[in-house]
Amino acid sequence: MIHENTKMVDLIHRNYVLITVFSRFGISLGFGDKTIQQVCEEKNINIRFFLEIINSFLDHDYFPQEQLKSFPIKLIVDYLTITHQYYLGKTIPEIEEIISGEKGICYENKEHNYLLNNFFQEYKKELITHITREDELVFPYALQVEECFLQHKSTDTLFEKYGNYSIGHYLQAHDNIEEKLFDLKNIIIKYLPPPKNPELCYQVIVLLFNLEKDMNDHSRIEEKVFVPKVSMMEKVILNKNKK
Predict the structure, then answer these.
(1) Rounded Cα–Cα distance for residues 55 and 53 (Å)
(2) How far apart are CA 48 and CA 38, in angstroms?
(3) What is the DSSP secondary structure assignment for residue 195, as one 8-state letter?
(4) Which residues pair with 35 in a beta bridge?
């Protein structure tokens, strides 16, 4: 378990991938020997939330579902939204540069390069659709629910804007984008011939594995924390309106 007195540099030595998580909280490198508490206080970051995210990222068996539910929806949504921006603004372009760019011709046969690129573009398209639906519909809806819940507002505005939409609709339509990512990895590992440029393919595979783990953690927060919390608030405000 990581605690507030742990030095930030020790976190990176434990798992360098945490650098990407730091960036989502607005934390850059160059923090010297500062502890988590010192950096969070300087950056005005909720230290309890930061610690729960870091600990769940480091240890897959550690998932503080109830603790995370105690945080405001806005805090959770902000983190999820920034993570979306990281996927689309950094991770996906890095993978695309290798698979689709001029420097990224992995295979001798053009048909094999086309197959890989085509599958990747389909995955990218589905990921963008998935993220756009969450950013433009699901997250604003959840924030509106939280506002009604906290301020004891009528649900009239909620119904006017979103009709009969509920967080249950989101969960039913929460497509498993991670499965498609698994298929993309397998195309390279199992089905395509030995690459012309092995090092480029190795880079892609490492990026895909890192993205897959990150997205699994991301989905756990959405399905185990975000959805149950919004659902609970929905039930409370709907019951109040029935009285």
Answers:
(1) 6
(2) 13
(3) P
(4) 7
